[in-house]
Specification:
single chain, HD/PDEase_dom, Hypothetical protein af1432, 55% helix, 9 helices, mainly alpha, HD_domain
Amino acid sequence: MLKRELFVQELYKLRDFPNENSTCDKILATFNIWAAKLDTSYLNTPTGIHGIGHANRVLFLSILLSELYNLSDKDKELIFTSAIFHDIGRINQDINAIHGELSYRKMHQLALLSPQSLGCEDDNVLKYIMENHCKSDKKIYNQTGQYSIRDGNRAVFLLKLFKDCDGLDRVRLGDLDINYLRNEKSKKLVDIAYLLLLHTKSP
C-alpha cells in the first residue's frame, strides 16, 4: 500500500480532514486489521486481476471513502466486508453478473462472519451490496424490497459507494471513466487509485 508520508500528502490535497496525520494512521490501522481477514485460499486466482491486490485496493478506497462520508461503524463494517469478500465466488477472471451472489454464498459457507456480527437487516443489506456490485445500475436500485430491507435509501447509498470503490480500481485495467462514478467524493480519489496501483505488486 501507500507509504505513510506519501499518503499524508494525498490526504492534505483532499482538504477534507482537519488532521491528515491522525486520519492517515487511523486508515492504515483499519486497513491492516481488515486485510488480514482475506486469505489467498479463498480466491480462485489470487494473483489475477480480481485477486488479492484488487481486493486490498478496493478495501483501502472503501476505508478512505467511508471517512470522507463519515459512515457509522456498522455501515463501515458492511462496506469493508464487501471489499474483502466481493470476488471470492469467482471461478474465472471473466465478466459475469452472478459472481457477487456466489461470493456472498461462499462467505457464509466458509463462516467468514462471526455469528453475532450482523443482525438480519444488516445481513440483508450486505447481501444486496455483494450480489449487485457487478450488475448494471439500471436493474438494481429498485430491488431493495426483494431483500426485505427496511431502509432502502441506506442500502442504495452503500451499494453506490461500494460500486465506486470497486470501479476506481479499474485503473488497473486502464479503462476508468470518472463519469461512471456515482458520488462526487469518489471522484476526488482518482489520483489515489492510481497511486495504489503503482505501489502494489499484484494486479
